[in-house]
Amino acid sequence: MELQNVGVLAGGRWIVRDTQLRLPKGVCCALLGPNGCGKSTLARVLAGFVWPTAGKVIVLGEAFGDTDLHALRKRVKLVQANSSVEHDPAQSAGDVVLTGAFGTILLFDQPTEAHRRRAMQLMRQLGVESLATARFGSLSTGERMRVLIARSLLVLPALLILDEATAGLDLLGRELLLRGLDSVMADGHNRATILMISHHVEEIPSCTNWAILMTAGRITSAGPVDQVIAAGPMSSAFGQTVRIDRNGGRFYARIEAASGLPGLT
């Protein structure tokens, strides 16, 4: 995907502004930044749900304004923690995954045997295979999120956007989701480009190999993950001295005590 001087004006202020970006195909990319910096708005632009006020957007080789956005959205999946789309709570978790074959909320059509095998494989990788017959409405927040990610991958998208996928999850729920994503990405059959939006470096999977930092509506750093999730770029993005550690492929961040924040001495 490519963004050229992209801006989004809403409510009299620029939510995203002067944004330049080129994201390579096939990466697992983390999009990080402070609250209110424009991450979710940028994600909705890339998914084709928000039209930019300024600039040029090219997604999967298709330029906005010159392509059919409805057709493009079929190749892009957006999964949000607080989605306005409501799945029937009485449906089984397995049937919710299978609706991904048709892009519907309810299962109106008959899935093929290949769809069913793929659904169970993804649920296994994401640790929710045992919940296939459970009512979707009975699942925890973390379980539902993993089911929805399996749904989004049933027919492999070219671009998968996960917006705050770990929001509201407890420690165990977060780890199960992140390990599930690592398992899915390790499978050579899954070649989607993944953009994962988060506030916290601790909430991105170890398979992440690219990163983007945003501050006040602008991208301040983008590139290989080791170059972006580093003390210098992170400190600039958050306006504090940030220390970055890495263990087992996962990142951990903390603000140094002498950063001048009230109560930090």
Provide the β-strand percentage band: 25-35%
Largest beta sheet: what is the strand line-up? 6-7-8-3-9-10
Oligomeric nature of the chains: single chain
Radius of gyration: 19 Å
By secondary-structure content and strand pairing, the structural class works out as: alpha/beta
Count of DSSP strands: 12
Average residue-wise pLDDT: 89
Outline type: globular
So how many helices? 8
In whole angstroms, how far apart are the ends?
43 Å
- H-E string: EEEHEEHEHHHEHEEEHHEE
Amount of helix: 25-40%
Task: Report the uncertain regions.
Answer: none
Major sheet summary line: 6 strands, mixed
Structure, explained:
There is one protein chain. The chain is α/β, with parallel strands linked by helices and 265 residues long. It has eight helices and twelve strands. The chain has helices spanning 39-46, 69-73, 93-98, 113-125, 141-154, 171-186, 225-228, 231-238, and strands at residues 2-10, 13-22, 28-32, 54-59, 62-63, 76-80, 159-163, 193-198, 210-215, 218-224, 242-247, 250-255. The strands form three sheets. A six-stranded mixed sheet has the order 6-7-8-3-9-10, with helices on both faces. Helix 5 (141-154) runs parallel beside helix 6 (171-186). The radius of gyration is 19 Å and the shape is globular. The model has no long low-confidence stretch (mean pLDDT 89).
